[in-house]
Specification:
31% helix, 466 residues, Enolase-like, domain 1, FAD/NAD(P)-binding domain, five-stranded parallel β-sheet, 3 domains, alpha/beta
Length: 466
């Protein structure tokens, strides 16, 4: 009997395995895929970022190099090589997880796992015993009943990351993170892309100003965007797909070579056997857990995309880094430690260009909660570093409490904000005031100066450079 058996080897599962091994536990990690890393490393975060970077390099060469005095002749796309590089990145990253498992003495098994008892898991035909079981099976693309996946014309994000050729036209259903990222990839490569979104704006879970700014940016790529549009059906032929929808109470049609359905993800709990053990799933198929990530069966735990922790304030964002943090916290609690995770300080990032990043409360959330706040904003067009880089789109917005000046949320769209947001996370973890950030010396010229200036605007409305 091992100390801990983990089902799922994504960013939650493999991180939990490593931390448990560091704490002296014997660990078995079970993964249904032939490779470790879960959705994120195999068909999610890593391959999508590889394609986002490749497509942005091409877009820069095609549209921006000339202003720098760089001339490129006979520019072209070797899509086969682009996809091969993407797969090389995936393979290299996945092999790194194999190395880590060997380094920490973790037993890895490949197969389908079903929990058959509080301390028993059946992997294919073999029954394993463990003192504790941790579910980290992640999520899968949510299907749209009126537009079912077929893997050829109607795609999930998995197929969209491995297309054999660049489509001439593409409809993306869903203006969330996955939808706008993959829309960006193919629009840069020359595909005529149309985004159809039911909500009133893009990335609707984030601050509304970010969605508006991102929409302007995507339109510069030639992407057509239809918000407040409800998809009602789809018909498919050998050459294209026709989407039917309603917009402003009128029927509208959209036709494209392929349709990407990116309306979200759902918890993967199928065939785990949790219901048979008396663990009741919520309405969205997620596993309710306590603040210690325990299910109603004390020896069984769950983390990541599969859990619902709403009764104790857990934010149900499906983020790889959130799953990794939960993994560490969960395992350390098993070992008797008392770690802490502040869900309000978990950042979200959209890897379009310009990038989008945020942490903490939005203006809408603060208004709904009747929290008095001040807002400070600084545009990248006023940043010398941004102008030097020809990257002046976007802004940073700092929200602070109107009475205490404590930072409540920071929202960014601009160059390299996916990296810059960590400074905002640090400030919020230590409950900094806007003045605290404003008093920090930012190196010049850097993009980070925009965070200092936005904080100056929030605390005293006295930014230096606008």
């Amino acid at each position: 009997m091992v100390d801990l058996l983990i089902i799922g080897a994504g960013p939650g599962g493999y991180v939990a395995a490593i931390r448990a091994a560091q704490l002296g536990m014997t660990v078995t990690l079970v993964e249904k895929r032939k490779t470790l890393g879960g959705t994120c490393l195999n068909v999610g975060c890593i391959p999508s970022k590889a394609l986002l970077d490749s497509s942005e390099h091409y877009h820069q060469a095609a549209s921006k190099f000339s202003v720098h005095g760089i001339s490129v002749k006979e520019l072209g796309i070797d899509f086969k090589q682009m996809m091969a590089r993407k797969q090389d990145v995936v393979n290299s990253t996945v092999s790194g997880i194999d190395y880590l498992m060997n380094k920490h003495g973790i037993t890895v098994m490949h197969g389908s796992a079903t929990i058959v008892g509080p301390n028993q898991v059946c992997v294919d035909t073999q029954t394993l015993e463990a003192k504790r079981i941790l579910i980290a099976t992640g999520s899968e693309p949510t299907p749209l009943p009126s537009v079912p996946f077929d893997g050829k014309r109607i795609l999930s994000s998995t197929e969209a990351l491995s297309l054999p050729k660049i489509p001439k036209t593409m409809i993306v259903i869903g203006g969330g993170v996955i939808g706008v990222e993959l829309a960006s990839v193919y629009a840069r490569l020359g595909t005529e892309v149309t985004i159809v979104e039911y909500a009133s704006g893009l990335i609707s879970a984030m601050d509304v100003d970010l969605g508006r700014a991102l929409q302007k940016s995507l339109k510069k790529l030639g992407i057509q965007i239809h918000t407040r549009t409800e998809v009602t059906g789809c018909s498919v032929t050998k050459t294209n797909a026709t989407l039917t929808a309603k917009k402003n109470n009128a029927d509208v049609d959209f036709k494209a070579e392929v349709v990407l359905v990116a309306v979200g993800r759902r918890a993967y709990t199928e065939s785990l056997g949790v219901s048979e053990l008396g663990i009741a799933l919520d309405a969205r198929g997620r596993i309710p857990v306590t603040a210690a990530y325990q299910t109603t069966v004390p020896s069984i735990y769950a983390i990541g995309d599969v859990i619902s922790g709403e009764p104790w304030g857990h934010k149900a964002y499906m983020l790889a880094h959130q799953a990794s943090e939960e993994a560490v916290i969960c395992v350390e609690m098993m070992a008797g430690q008392q770690p802490h995770l502040d869900y309000n300080c978990i950042p979200g990032v959209v890897y379009t260009w310009p990038e989008v990043a945020a942490v903490g409360k939005t203006e809408a959330e603060l208004t709904a909660a009747n929290v008095p706040y001040r807002s400070g904003k600084f545009p990248f067009k006023a940043s010398g570093r941004a102008r030097a880089a020809e990257e002046s789109d976007g802004f940073i917005k700092v929200l602070s409490h109107a009475e205490t000046d404590e930072v409540l949320g920071i929202h960014m769209i601009g160059p390299r904000v996916a990296d810059l947001i960590h400074s905002a996370v640090t400030a919020m973890e230590y409950r900094a005031s806007a003045e605290d950030i404003a008093r920090l010396c930012a190196p010049h010229p850097t993009f980070s100066e925009a965070l200092k200036e936005a904080s100056l605007d929030a605390t005293e409305h006295r930014p230096i450079h606008i």
